């Protein structure tokens, strides 16, 4: 093997080493980004769970209010019927 072949092989090896090093750095950077994204997703999931629980409490409270309004409306209706009966002598 002559000097020019050795030089060419050395350059090829250097290029391959540089490529391998770059790929390793790229993989590390991608892993770091994926870890950041995973943390963001976990935070969003925690927020979503909290909002879901809050919405469930509000829904239950809303149902309670509707039941209360229904009972109150029924009582008002019954009272109004008695008053009308007294007024019109029914």
Query: Stretches where pLDDT falls below 50 for ≥5 residues?
Result: none
Instruction: Please report which band the strand proportion falls in: under 5%, 5-15%, 15-25%, 25-35%, 35-45% or over 45%.
Output: under 5%
Q: What does the overall shape look like?
A: rod-shaped
DSSP strand tally: 0
State the major sheet.
none
- Quick check: average pLDDT? 91
CA radius of gyration: 38 Å
Terminal residue distance = 123 Å
Number of helices: 1
Computed structural class:
mainly alpha
Give the helix proportion (percent range): over 70%
Order of helices and strands: H
Describe the structure concisely for a colleague:
It is built from 1 helix and no strands. The protein is mainly α and 90 residues long.
What descriptors fit this protein?
single chain, 90 residues, mainly alpha, 96% helix, 0% strand, rod-shaped
Question: Your description of this structure?
Answer:
- The chain has 90 residues and is mostly helical.
- The chain has 1 helix and no strands.
- The protein has one helix at residues 3-88.
- It starts with a helix and ends with a helix.
- The mean pLDDT is 91.
